[in-house]
């Protein structure tokens, strides 16, 4: 008996969320998420959804407060950066005390149309693509695909394009080679080439007169012109994203999982958003930061390397009456803590050999906290300080958050990155924490409803108590 008590005292037992939480509460939260993930097929759409939800809860744009000339406790502020990233904050006390921040990314692996995409070959009009982020190219063959994005016309007019998400819309397909003829051998990256990921756009000619060249391509361009008023040159100044046309579905007879495109990382973006909306910060200001381009290195003026949110904080410091902004922003950043809200790889019993079972997060066991990500000896990772993990662990344990630790596969097996390091270099205390997935970066990823809910709860506790 004494040994049993000693075991209970000294060893850690992982707890299933399903054991502790009300199933109805989990399902209700999951239903809201499914509405979001079905709508937010691109980062622009995710920002659009987020702004609408924030405004419903009384958040106002930064310009409103700049015109007013001051901010106070309880003010709720948001700022949109180039339509594809966003910062939102609830004010509590002086910003120089630091803020509690949850940062996630809104982009997801996909295919982008090339600048001059439409071609015709052997009686088929196709659209050429360039894949975005880490994808297994073969997974994008022979599945239904949608097209979403914006086109900027020569006169500056912005045209929103959305084809495939309405039940009456057509979808697109990248054809695969039938098994009867497929005798290709070799490395999978050589067998499936990026240049071969061409969408089938149509097969009907606009005219069957011999002197009309590329008449099928011309028919496709004419359809686009009639629907959107755009011409071929307009496609050069466009962002058109190809995403799976796969509606969100419950998975398993127990309906415990959600299959959807874009869990990475919109699942953490949604949980961060809802946590901020429902938060009541007790100690200091609470905020979320949703960025773009994480899947390709966080570059560009909408990625995490572009610190637009720091400029926002400087303006807020001034609105609080601070005068030495350069010193005050340093204090604000150094005193702040950020949860890098990104997904991790759940233990998959079909692929046991790539995981360390003792350290791989498991579906249904709560939010996964990763001290480090990176690859090849922790390269390109934040590698959080023990003090940060210790403080977060204490907050979570005291408030009943169900959590687990995790890492992205075995040592030397692979690895990955998050936005964490780009915030750590500015002086913030940073650690990764998010939902564990099966099939990450595939067109149809799997997440546990339990982990979805627990991650939302964990973020809310962090924003309230940190």
Automatic annotation (TrEMBL):
Keyword Cell membrane: no
Entry's EC annotation: 3.4.11.-
Domain of life: Bacteria
Keywords, sorted A to Z: Aminopeptidase, Hydrolase, Metal-binding, Metalloprotease, Protease, Zinc
Signal peptide boundaries: none
GO cellular component: cytoplasm
GO MF annotations, alphabetized: aminopeptidase activity; metallopeptidase activity; zinc ion binding
GO biological process annotation, one example: proteolysis
Protein known as: M18 family aminopeptidase
Organism of this sequence: Marinitoga hydrogenitolerans (strain DSM 16785 / JCM 12826 / AT1271)
């Amino acid at each position: 008996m004494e040994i049993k008590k000693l075991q209970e005292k000294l060893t850690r037992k992982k707890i299933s969320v399903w054991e502790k939480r009300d199933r109805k509460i989990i399902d209700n939260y999951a239903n809201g998420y499914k509405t979001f993930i079905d709508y937010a097929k691109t980062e622009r759409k995710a920002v659009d959804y987020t702004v609408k939800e924030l405004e419903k809860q009384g958040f106002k744009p930064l310009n409103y407060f700049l015109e007013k000339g001051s901010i106070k406790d309880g003010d709720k502020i948001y700022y949109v950066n180039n339509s594809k990233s966003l910062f939102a904050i609830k004010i509590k006390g002086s910003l120089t005390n630091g803020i509690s921040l949850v940062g996630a990314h809104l982009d997801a692996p996909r295919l982008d149309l090339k600048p001059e995409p439409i071609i015709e070959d052997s009686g088929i009009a196709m659209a050429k693509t360039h894949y975005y982020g880490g994808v297994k190219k073969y997974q994008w063959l022979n599945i239904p695909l949608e097209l979403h994005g914006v086109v900027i016309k020569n006169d500056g007019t912005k045209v929103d394009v959305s084809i495939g998400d309405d039940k009456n819309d057509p979808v697109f397909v990248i054809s695969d080679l039938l098994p009867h003829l497929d005798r290709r051998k070799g490395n999978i990256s050589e067998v499936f080439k990026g240049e071969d990921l061409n969408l089938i756009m149509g097969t009907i000619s606009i005219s069957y007169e011999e002197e009309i060249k590329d008449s099928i391509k011309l028919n496709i361009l004419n359809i686009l012109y009639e629907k959107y008023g755009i011409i071929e040159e307009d496609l050069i100044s466009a962002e058109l994203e190809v995403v799976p046309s796969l509606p969100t579905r419950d998975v398993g007879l127990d309906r415990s999982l959600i299959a959807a495109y874009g869990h990475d990382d919109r699942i953490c973006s949604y949980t961060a958003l809802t946590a901020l909306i429902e938060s009541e910060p007790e100690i200091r200001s609470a905020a979320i930061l949703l960025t773009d381009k994480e899947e390709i290195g966080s570059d560009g003026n909408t990625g995490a390397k572009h610190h637009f949110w720091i400029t926002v904080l400087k303006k807020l410091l001034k609105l609080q009456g601070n005068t030495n902004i350069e010193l005050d922003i340093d204090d604000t950043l150094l005193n702040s803590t950020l949860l890098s809200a990104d997904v991790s790889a759940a233990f998959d019993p079909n692929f046991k050999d790539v995981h360390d079972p003792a350290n791989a997060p498991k579906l249904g066991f709560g939010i996964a906290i990763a001290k480090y990500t990176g690859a090849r000896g922790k390269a390109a990772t934040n590698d959080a300080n023990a003090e940060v993990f210790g403080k977060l662990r204490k907050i979570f344990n005291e408030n009943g958050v169900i959590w687990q630790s995790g890492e992205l596969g075995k040592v030397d097996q692979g690895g990955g990155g998050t936005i964490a390091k780009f915030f750590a270099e500015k002086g913030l205390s940073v650690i990764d924490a998010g939902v564990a997935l099966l099939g990450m970066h595939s067109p149809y990823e799997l997440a546990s409803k339990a982990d979805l809910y627990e991650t939302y709860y964990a973020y809310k506790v962090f924003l309230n108590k940190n």
